[in-house]
Design brief:
Non-ribosomal Peptide Synthetase Peptidyl Carrier Protein, Chain A
């Protein structure tokens, strides 16, 4: 899972937190509460997840409990494997 977390963090910084420092995002920080990802960003995130990890994200899985932090994403991906 450490590689998954590093991959997720890299994507978030490259696509949403361009000029932020690594310490500006904790692995449990909420993307929505922090204003990091909006509804359009969620669609971009889901497309990236499906392409990168070769998974399918079903409509009923588009909930904050699965997609709202680095750790939640890593757990979601692990659960899909």
């Amino acid at each position: 899972m450490p590689d998954t977390i590093a991959t997720i963090r890299s994507f978030i910084f490259d696509n949403f937190l361009f000029d932020a420092a690594e310490e500006d995002l904790g692995n449990d920080d909420s993307f929505l509460d922090q204003g990091i990802i909006d509804s359009t960003g969620v669609l971009e995130l889901v497309e990236w997840l499906e392409d990168t990890f070769d998974i399918t994200v079903d409509d009923d899985e588009l909930i904050p409990e699965n997609l709202d932090s680095v750790n939640q994403l890593a757990a979601f991906i692990a659960g899909k494997a």
